[in-house]
Design a protein that fits this description.
Layout: H1 2-10, H2 18-53, E1 65-67, E2 70-73, E3 81-88, E4 94-102, E5 118-124, E6 127-132, E7 137-141, E8 147-149, H3 158-183
Antiparallel strand pairs: 1-2, 2-3, 3-4, 5-6, 6-7, 7-8
């Protein structure tokens, strides 16, 4: 019996007939195509939720300003409240912080696309000039820490910001629709 098994292992097996070979090749191709589709759907299932959460780009990094030994920074860590911090350059201790402006949030819209951050800081004649992403300019008197908004906001930036918000809302809605279509 052992010789029969050894003989079977050594004896070459006949090639499949042409008709059988033709049937096996399409099955292998179908299997490969199906496995690729499964991989694509799996990848989309993993990536789409992360795309749906990416609603707003991160705010620009605001360069700090140093004036008379004090470093003024805009942390831009939350879009509802735009504030500045004053730090002693020599001791690196926080002296104070001040809210420059707040954002009223419409509860019927996505919150993060309504956030407005500080875009630039500069100092002129003892006054800290704060510019928002919407082009609105605020003046902070560094002696009294009072904030006043400029009379003439830079409205040239506002249409660009509105267009960016609309584009982000559209991307978010499209990603949700694709995710729902893939799930359903």
């Amino acid at each position: 019996m052992i010789t029969n098994i050894a003989a079977a292992l050594v004896t070459p097996q006949p090639w499949p007939k042409a008709a059988e070979a033709r049937v096996e090749v399409p099955l292998v191709r179908r299997f490969m195509v199906m496995s690729q589709l499964v991989l694509i759907f799996f990848t989309m299932g993993v990536l789409l939720p992360s795309l749906a959460l990416a609603k707003r780009i991160a705010p620009a990094k605001v360069e700090p300003v140093i004036h008379q030994g004090v470093r003024y920074i805009a942390p831009n860590d939350h879009g509802r409240r735009a504030y500045i911090e004053a730090w002693d350059v020599r001791t690196n201790k926080k002296l104070w912080d001040l809210t420059v402006f707040t954002n009223r949030i419409d509860p019927t819209l996505e919150q993060d696309v309504q956030w407005v951050f500080i875009k630039t800081l500069s100092v002129q004649d003892g006054t800290l000039i704060v510019t928002s992403e919407r082009g609105e300019t605020y003046r902070v008197d560094l002696k009294t820490k009072t904030v006043t908004q400029s009379e003439q906001p830079n409205t040239a930036l506002e249409p660009a910001v509105r267009a960016e918000i609309l584009a982000l809302q559209h991307q978010w809605a499209t990603a949700i629709e694709r995710q729902d279509a893939a799930a359903g």
